[in-house]
Design a protein that fits this description.
Bound molecules: zinc ion
Order of helices and strands: EEHEEHEHEH
Shape: elongated
Strand content: 15-25%
Distance between the termini: 28 Å
Structural class: alpha+beta
Length: about 140
């Protein structure tokens, strides 16, 4: 993410805008999709060449990050709910259960979820067993 300070050539308003990259800025400008927040003019230009990166610490960025985090957290919680409804919980036996499903092809079972160490996941992967690691939020955590 890159932040540019933009200026409206029509009303002189200066404002900040975020772009995925400098080429995205160019692309939006070319398509006349950049416009002034105040007068809607498309005569908007970059004022400074030095872009600020998102990891630059400032209060505004922290607020953005917190909002982003809450959004992501909500997604994770929804995802967890889906997993709980559709997958079988195996707790710490994840690696064992994953193997028994993998090597016993007759056994029709729904997906499983549980906890496994990074080493377990690495070993499972080497054995060709598909396992995904997802962030997990404890529900009592607020
Ligand atoms: Zn303007």
């Amino acid at each position: 993410m890159i932040k540019y300070k933009l200026i409206c050539k029509n009303c002189d308003l200066k404002f900040d805008s975020w772009f995925a990259s400098s080429s995205e800025y160019e692309r939006l400008k070319k398509k006349k999709l950049l416009n002034c927040h105040k007068c809607n003019s498309v005569r908007v230009e970059k004022t400074i060449m030095a872009p600020q990166l998102i990891n630059h610490k400032s209060k505004t960025n922290e607020k953005i990050n917190l909002e982003k985090y809450n959004k992501i957290k909500k997604t994770i919680i929804n995802y967890q709910k889906f997993i709980k409804d559709n997958f079988k919980y195996v707790g710490d036996n994840f690696a064992y259960e994953a193997r028994s499903i993998h090597y016993n092809t007759q056994k029709k079972t729904k997906g499983i979820y549980g906890s496994a160490s990074k080493e377990d996941l690495k070993e499972l992967k080497e054995e060709g067993i598909d396992a995904q690691m997802i962030p997990w939020i404890e529900e009592n955590e607020n």
